[in-house]
């Protein structure tokens, strides 16, 4: 670029340029130079900042971004969740990092790379592992990880029809019933305390009651029965003896 020292106009707006500003570009800082609206360049192509203090310049000693830790999080099943991931630190191009994320399992959540926001509505209990990667214009990257837990909400067993009881409870075989307003359309799921889905079958129904059985004999212990009907979710503590 030293040969362009007598250049008077340097205009490369609205192009698909990416990377960083070579130090040799300082030779045209006194010209009418503009590289605006190039998202792949530092600051979107803010050439004035480069000429002023070297912002966005390529450095022979370019270092990778440094992650900022995020604490492990808790989200509630069925309720909206939103969290802004902490920005990484980068000595050369802090405002030009590209972010990507892996959420496994996604469980109803999405990542917005522009805002660094993880949002959505979790659909089931359990745990997601999140990996955030930041890459600088020079191709160097770093990552950080954390988890999001979706705990089960354990409610008491109702003792009367008004409270929607589950019976018998405890159960000594694979059969039990749950009282419902709409047994024909209700969705019923059984979980272990660590969030694993246990297969169950509907074997009968009558007015206000649904008969169920586990598909196989389960180990003794405490399980959670989740009932969804009329846009409402209830959870019950079920004991297997």
UniProtKB/TrEMBL annotation:
Cellular component aspect of the GO annotation: membrane
| Any coiled-coil regions, as ranges | none
Q: Which molecular function terms from Gene Ontology are attached?
A: calcium ion binding
Q: Which residues form the signal peptide?
A: none
**Domain of life here?**
Bacteria
InterPro entries recorded:
Cadg, Cadherin-like_sf, Ig-like_fold, Secre_tail
Q: Which Pfam families match?
A: He_PIG
All copies of the Dystroglycan-type cadherin-like domain together span 63-151
Could you tell me which NCBIfam families the record lists for this protein? Answer: Por_Secre_tail (TIGR04183)
What is the protein named? Por secretion system C-terminal sorting domain-containing protein
